[in-house]
Every structure is written in C-alpha cells, then in structure tokens.
Amino acid sequence: MSPALLSKRLKDLEAAGIVTRRRLEADPELFEYRLTDAGNELGLVIEAVGAWGHRWIETEASLKNLDPTLLMWDMRRNIGPFPTPRRRNTIQVIFADLKEQRRNWWLIVEPGQEADLCSVNPGFDVDLYLSTDLRTMTEIWMGYTTIDRAKEQGRLLLTGNRQLEADIGTWLRLSLFAKVERMVA
Questions:
Q1: Which residues pair with 91 in a beta bridge?
Q2: Where in the chain is the domain with CATH 3.30.1050.10?
Q3: In a structure prediction context, what are the per-residue pLDDT tens digits for the chain, which is 185 residues long?
C-alpha cells in the first residue's frame, strides 16, 4: 500500500471513530494510531465474518487469487515463541513456483522482539529453509492441510536446523481461522 493511500485510510478510520491518532512523546513528528472502543468492538465483527467465510466459502474460491506478500506479512504477525537457543533465527521461505522477484522471503526473529520480514536477502545465515509453492503454504496457513501432510506429499521441504523444523507447529502459528470447522468440502 502506498504511503498516500495508507494515510487516507487512517484518516477515514479516524473520522469514523475506529482509531485515534496521537503524537509520540519520543518524537513529536511521528504519530501512533490506536483502536478506539468502537474499533476493538468492530474487530470482533470482522473476526466473525472471517470465521463465517472460512467455514462456508468453497476452498477453491479462496485459493484463486493468492498473494505472497499478504501471506508472508500475515505469517510474520503470528510467528510464535522459538525454541532455544535464544538467538536470532532466520527462516527463508522459498516459493518455487513464483518468479524470482517474489520467490524468496526471510523471517528474522530476534529474542524478545517481533519477527521481521524481508523480501531482499538480509545477509544472515539461514537456520531453516522452507521450500514449497504459494498454494501449499496458503493451504497450510489457512488450515486446509497440515504441515505433516504437505511434507508427506512432497509439497513442502524443510532443510536446516532440526530443532526449528521439529518445533514448526509451535512457532508457525496459523491463521486465526485455521481452527474454524469447515462446512464445505
């Protein structure tokens, strides 16, 4: 999203009473946005609509317009606790079916910090390589298939740190909707 579009959307949300804006004390040139009570309550509505869609909308329709950028940013938001040792962990996700400029992504997790996402090689040693196609990773992320099933079918290859691989079900926390019971095949 362009900065201009983001600014417009935030102003619209502020005008609607969904977010509030305030200057940062540390840097008065910068602002932070926070959800209002109405914004928090709206979040519940959005989650309910998402759960409904996951439960009732056909899987194939959900998998027609895949976007690696959206998937990777959502995955980044949900990276969970990492196993020991407590040091930087770098996971390279390789979408073998995509063109070179959209194929490689790096998730970088520093102890005590949120995960970072890079679409350009950050230059760190990679601890775990995760090679798959975009559809398979989306199916895993959305709970349509499991990591183990994708590995068994040869659609997902994990190479590198055995502990990170063994604990992938812990640190790769899936979509909020992955556990919603599906009512369509």
A1: 107, 128
A2: 61-171
A3: 677 888 899 999 999 999 999 998 888 888 899 999 999 999 889 888 877 876 777 666 566 678 899 899 989 988 877 665 578 999 999 999 999 999 999 999 888 788 899 999 999 999 999 999 999 999 999 888 999 999 999 999 999 999 899 989 888 888 877 777 777 65
Fold held by 3-59: Arc Repressor Mutant, subunit A (1.10.10)
Q: Which fold has domain 61-171?
A: Nonspecific Lipid-transfer Protein; Chain A (3.30.1050)
3-state helix, strand, coil in the chain (%, to 5): 40, 20, 40
Angle between helices 134-142 and 68-77 (to 10 degrees): 40
Task: Give pTM, 2 decimals.
Answer: 0.74
